[in-house]
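I am still getting used to backbone structure tokens and would like to learn alongside you. Label the sequence line and the structure token line clearly, so we can match residues to local backbone shapes. Would you write everything just below, so we can both look at the same thing?
***
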Amino acid sequence: MKTLKDVISLKFKTSESEGVIFHGEGQQGDYITLELKKAKLVLNLNLGSNQLGSIYGHTSVMTGSLLDDHHWHSIIIERHGRNINLTLDRHMQHFRTNGEFDYLDLDYEITFGGMPFSGKPSSNSRKNFKGCMESINYNGNNITDLAKRKKLEPSNVGNLSFSCVEPHTVPVFFNATSYLEAPGRPSQDLFSVSFLFRTWNPNGLLVFSNFADDLGNVEIDINEGKVSVHINVTLVKKNRIDISS
């Protein structure tokens, strides 16, 4: 496939922060990769470089954040030569690719949800996408529908199910005045707690617990965007331990 124009669109939702959404490459060094990195969307594109190094075509654009929230996000990539419109959830970003070439030359297949192992370091370090996609459209071809009807030839459809499995986690929303109080375990000499959280606020109390028999307390909070753990112990000389991350 050698194209001057491309339109690629899809919707996805995931609770994973890393994963290849789609990938294609050619023998002349052209490639296009859309992936999640640290819950942000990254588009890597190269319409061609030359061996002398005077033309360097690699272009990388990042957009969005916190995209691993298991909510649907929509992507549209519109390319006309070196001009690209990248739209994520109706927010459009316009840019021009590096280099001097206008055509995307892909001799191999395009893969959605991951990339084949090519022996290159770039393919070895990337994770496959884990989550749900719908409405995959590549240059007018409804990929989702073709895959479901097994009309993609040649194709290698892995372990796909045409339904979206919901995670079994139950989130809790706290406003500025709400809190959740749970019973402690007085007979235990071990304190252990784990949780996932997300917030836009740079400060706030996450966890607080008094130890039994007035032995002290433990406090976990966010202070100026950093998580801190404070352990107060009443029976020792160094009675306060502070850990920040």
Notes: The chain has a mean pLDDT of 87.
